[in-house]
Amino acid sequence: MGISFPMVSIIIPCYNAEKYLSNIMNSVLLQTYKKWETICVNDGSNDNTENILLKYAKQDERIKVVSQLNMGVVKAREVGIKEAGGDYLLFVDADDTLVPEALEMLVDRLSVYPHADIVVSGYHIVCQGTVLSTKIPKIDILDSLSYLKRVLVGKTGWELWSKLFRKSLFDEDLTHPQRIRIGEDAAVFIQLVAKSKTIVGCNTPIYNYIQNEESVSQRKSVELAEETLKAAIFIENYLKKTVFYHDLKKEIDAMFLLFYSNSTRRGYLSWNNSLVKKIKKEHFSIVSFYLIPFYKAVYICCWYSLGYLLKYSNIRKH
């Protein structure tokens, strides 16, 4: 099979997604690049998800439906990967959509860089039909170390969607953080980048990320805030085992700042929280503040100051 026309396997985990399926499935059927298959994994849905998927499978033989008991998005993706027959994999969330030229633009980058292991693309953030912002990777070609540095300091995203992966990256089992719902994608993506040799950019938005209030990423609780910090610790422990670790220490500190920033939007963790105390002691530094995006640094400083004021206020009361 010529690399200029590779088979792309689109993997869509689906759980109680009946409200969104027509949008994502129609966006797949409208792809201008035709050499694809779609693996839809029905993850124990108790709504009409399975019947809707089967209807689309009858409409186009390139669509396959696999049903399983509810095991979560990680297991659903693993099933999709095992079923996939493509040279490259594209992960899509069931409540998002692709632009019609998505696969064509991704494969076009492979025609320029046939040895690429990952193609990262731009995407739109959409809320109620309105594009709120557009994210562009702003890279041409990078090695794994250079790209890891960009990811860890927040210059590019670490979500699995909107990226094309060489399937052989998944030949060896990946390690998944246990009992973590927030940051799991980041933990997996870091491993995939570390296993890669070449990452190229598609500086055009090919994916519509739909903000959905029902998704885990929009929920708030102290538990989710702690899970965010645990994901950062998992990533650090993984990188310690790689050849990249000593070249990434400053960037890892910056990553902890970013994950701490994200955790504050999930729920309030007091200064006495053991995870917060550990991260502040080991990773907060002036250098790491300079590495992250300016607006993130300002946000963390404001939150940090607020925490200090609250702590001081409590001391005064007692």
UniProtKB/TrEMBL annotation:
CDD domains attached to this UniProt entry: Glyco_tranf_GTA_type
The Glycosyltransferase 2-like domain, residue ranges: 9-128
Classification via InterPro entries: Glyco_trans_2-like (IPR001173), Nucleotide-diphossugar_trans (IPR029044)
Entry keyword set: Membrane, Transmembrane, Transmembrane helix
One MF annotation (Gene Ontology) recorded for this entry: hexosyltransferase activity
Transmembrane annotation, as ranges: 287-310
Keyword Membrane in annotation: yes
Organism the protein comes from: Parabacteroides goldsteinii CL02T12C30
This protein's name: Glycosyltransferase 2-like domain-containing protein
Organism lineage: Bacteria, Pseudomonadati, Bacteroidota, Bacteroidia, Bacteroidales
Signal sequence range: none
Top-rank lineage group of the source organism: Bacteria
